[in-house]
Amino acid sequence: MRPEDPPAQRVVVTSPRTGAPRPRRPYPASREITEQSQLGELYMRSLIRTQRTLGLLVVGLVAGGLATLPLVFTFAPWVSRLQVFGIGLPWVLLGVVVFPVFVLAGWFYVRQAERSERQFAELVERS
Amino acid sequence: MNSTYGVVAVLVVALGAMLVGAYGLRVSRTTSDFYVASRTVSPWWNASAIGGEYLSAASFVGIAGLIFAHGPDMLWFPVGYTAGYLVLLTLVAAPLRRSGAYTLPDFAEARFSSPLVRRVASGLAIAIAWMYLLPQFKGAGLTLHTVTGAPDWLGGLIVAVVVTVNVVSGGMRSVTFVQAFQYWLKLTAIAVPVVFLLLAWQAHGGQRINGPEYPVFRQTTTVDFDTTTVIHADHDVAFSGRGLVDGARLEGDGLTLTAGEHTIAAGSSFVFPAGATVPHLESLPHTTNANWALPMAAGGEFPLYAVYSLILATFLGTMGLPHVIVRFYTNPNGRAARRTTLIVLGLLGIFYLMPPLYGVLGRLYTPELLLTGDTDAVVLVLPSRMIEGVGGQLLGALVAGGAFAAFLSTSSGLMVSLAGVLSQDVLKMRGVRGFRISAGLAVLVPLAMTVLVGGIPVADMVGLAFAVAASSLCPLLLLGIWSTRITTPGAVAGMLAGGLPALAAGIVTISARTNDQWFHVFLSRPAAWTVPLGFVVMYGVSLMTPSKVPANVNRVMVRLHAPENLGLETNEEPSMSELRRRGEM
Fold first, then answer.
1. Within-domain flag for B259
2. Beta-carbon count within 10 A of B582 CB
3. What pLDDT digit, counting tens, does each position of B501-538 carry?
4. CB–CB contact A94 B72 (8 Å)
5. In which broad location class does this protein mainly occur, judging by the first location in its UniProt entry (chain B) (predicted)?
6. Domain that residue A61 falls in
7. Which of A15, B75, B122, B143 is most buried (CB neighbours < 10 A)?
């Protein structure tokens, strides 16, 4: 090493910038929900409202439809004298038809309820 | 009816239930197994078990009996029993499962974090379970009496003993097997005879049941009166035999029962000729076949009120029945709870196609039951009446066995839940020992009560239990699950305001005779006024006490409604996405 050579430059090698804040990862919505933040509450409220509307709608349509029957049978007695395949209409409706209707309504409800839960989960996982 | 086959069938069902239970005993080892089958039950098993447990004496014998006596208005019973599961599915099933509650009191505590709400809920659950056990024991007594002539109390005692032994030794796991097995047994026992009965009816000429005449005896019929009976004859009826009519001793041939009301003393035995119009119990409606076949035509006070009250009680009462709730805990999660309930809807629908057929055929073939008042026996008597020889007796034995299966399965379901509530909330004894002691206690009270109550149709008694459930525990579940505003005082006030009047009305109906009072229907069908009362008081009091909303209500709501696939910390088991996220952080 010759003396006229300039002294070697001291290079400071720094560590990665640990002290600086990393760019924020989006705060997962599922944590908003568990931590009861206002946003999480909003998410849950919307899910509960959707499910409640769906449930009341299905019950309301089926039960509401059924509940008109006693009124019809009372105030329009000719309806209850109608015959289907030789059997009185009230017997056919209340003895046979209602049961597949219940299963169909239940199947529709399960499909819709699971769909809205799936959509809710996607929304939460995406954010 | 030759009783040998019937006795054999009842014995086989009772022994079979105990054997399946004993098989389950070897499987159930820990306390968790004992209570909830460690939640390893698949939806199909679980749905069969729910069906097996739910189809009670009321469904198996009661509905046919009521339709036989009162006509199509009574179809609302099976419709309502099934619709109750639709309401349960759409508004309760998944959140209830996610709440992690094993009994209704557990749900009350999880939702309101209040020991007071819990205590009120458990008191009501116990009352409902006892009201529901009572008709099961009555039905068992009736079946054994019809099949063998044994005294009325014996059948109830047998059911009580078998169920207690089974529940105490096996717990829930064995009960799940027993119940699932019992659904299919019951379906077979009611569906197979129906096929043969319809064939026999065709072979007899396929007679219609909508003519303008009153029911008539198809053949010469001997009627024995076990109790003093007030009857009504629509036409003069010729008869023979011996007995006391209106206090006068009659004996011999060529007697005439004039049109109108008569009192026939216990111990009388009369023979009516074929073709005679059937006199009937005074308390049953006086209808021709044509009128009987029409809805809302039987008269009675406030027919619309009665129908709507029944609809409310059955649609909303199902979710409040203690043995129904327990079953949901054996589902692994909320989604499975929904799927199970959907299968249940199908299973119940298939079963309920059958009882009305028995009721209709009974009008033709066993009209004398209108005279004795044993209308609940129509399912049991029909097969041997319509089909000659050994075939009819075997079918009769099958039906008797199925009926017994109905009493056994519903009673064990009720016993498990009742003993669960009793051991946790009343005796405060944890573990298997407390459960066993409670089971003994659970069975004694309704058994003692069977001595006290009179001749109320089985399905009507069950209807009262539904009414209490619909007016007290149903508001708690529906409002508790779907509204964040319900407060602790609101919940307590609502349950009491709906439940206590319904309970009181039920007790008056089964213990006092109010049949001829104008207000009878308001006591025997209380739901139409007690259900709104329960809901309005619960919501109203809650709005008046806004400061008493439980502090953790939002956390509880998340637990009840968050889907499992979200993997929140409030769900019991972490999902894959939850584990991934925890790894990243």
1. yes
2. 11
3. 999 988 888 777 666 677 777 888 888 899 999 999 99
4. yes
5. membrane
6. 29-126
7. B143
